[in-house]
């Protein structure tokens, strides 16, 4: 088994058109994640799927057991691929993600998914702090516009800001094509 893993975080139905919390660029990000998934499977890398569910049925999205909380078909897990259920932003917090990676001797991670400024940011920082070598495929991540101090921040700016911060000290941040060309 390779010492490389692909971690796919929160590419779930509620983030797509028709879902409860639609992200800008969700389809394109999932398409790129699917390309990385196919390559990881072909190489025999460990693939770990992470999905979020809130603790309450009246959650704004990702309600327990809902179709919206299911992993999107573009990156559907295969039999034998670990699926980590999380209830917090950080995929390492309160889950067996770190144990799963360590059991497989993983030293380097590629992280993709949603949302750029939340779960991708938290998992990337945690992974780097735990000593993993981390790469983020920025065009395989998606987010949404935010508001701060009375100003609307477009999704592209939210995404770019999150990726710039990660690239500054936590991860290599590259395009999907660059990873596939390696």
Structural account:
The chain has helices spanning 26-43, 97-103, 116-129, 155-169, 176-181, and strands at 4-9, 46-52, 83-86, 108-114, 133-142, 146-148, 151-153, 172-174. The chain is an alpha/beta fold. It has one domain (4-181): Isochorismatase-like (Rossmann fold), CATH 3.40.50.850. Strands 3-2-1-4-5-8 form a 6-stranded parallel beta sheet. A two-stranded antiparallel sheet has the order 6-7. Strand 6 and strand 7 form a beta hairpin. The radius of gyration is 15 Å and the shape is globular. The model has no long low-confidence stretch (mean pLDDT 96).
Derived from helix and strand composition plus strand pairing, the structural class reads alpha/beta
- What is the total domain count? 1
Mean pLDDT: 96
The CATH class is identified as: Alpha Beta
The amount of beta strand, in percent, is: 15-25%
CATH superfamily: Isochorismatase-like
